[in-house]
Amino acid sequence: MKWLKWIWLWCAILLSVSGRGKNLPVLTTEQLQNKMSVLVVSGSEPPRPVADMLQKTLIAWRDQKQISFEWMVKTDSLSPEQLNKINERPYDYIIVLGHNVVANVLPSAKQITSRKWVLLDDMIGGSPDGVNSSNILLKAVPADRIRSEWDEWVKQQQITGRGIEWVTNSSRPIPSDWAPSEEAETISLTDAQGWYPQFQTQVRQHGPSWIVLYAPVDDAILQRMKNLQVPIMNIAATSLQLQWDAILAGLEQMMEKKTWAPGTQTYTEQEMRILKNF
Description:
The protein has 278 residues and is of the alpha/beta class. The protein has helices at residues 2-18, 29-34, 48-65, 80-88, 99-111, 144-159, 195-206, 219-226, 244-257, and strands at residues 36-41, 67-72, 93-97, 116-120, 136-140, 164-168, 187-189, 210-213, 232-234, 239-242, 263-266, 272-275. The strands form 3 sheets. The chain has a 6-stranded parallel beta sheet with strand order 2-1-3-4-5-11. It has a 4-stranded parallel beta sheet with strand order 7-6-8-9, covered by helices on one side. Helix 3 (48-65) runs parallel beside helix 9 (244-257). It is elongated, with a radius of gyration of 24 Å.
């Protein structure tokens, strides 16, 4: 595939000489050898500020760093035509944005091993397990970050004797030091048949200070819970806000210094903010 890249680069030189490309930056021999190409894949509804920042950054990479780019927008999953394009064009890096897109693109990324992939997940604990392909870098936040963010609050309730009625599902067990086994009757599983009437009875019997959601519930259930007149702490609504200026700066440095490496990396504190819903 390297011959395709050389053809593209020589075309750029010819355009600049002919005058049709007179506004393009003229590449030095060193720049020509180091020129990179990037493909960005984003989902159907990226927030406008993120889209604007990304576009501005990509243009700056092209004009100042000689990093050519293409951007597949509104792409929640890759079509056969897009997969063919990825196989045919010599992209140095493919950058994928957003949890749903990452989940949908991952199987293709594992198959297209001739490309270096950078998957940017934006959901806490939502990244797939076992991403150990030699061509994939996954940046994410592990699920145990929720525990570290909320541990102090939970311990404070325990110390002050404020009872908690927990709501979760079987795939998200409550940490044992938050709800010991002897307190199992204070935990309701939303994927158990007929769980809500039993939960409602338990709330009335236990008289908790808090209802704590460790797994999400739908709006209708949440409204019914509010009618119980017990304060609700929605730990499940803890969200991740990526700091795109820091992330894009890190990606630029990674490409310039050629420090890409496969595996799973946790975002740095400069690259993210954890948003808790108090």
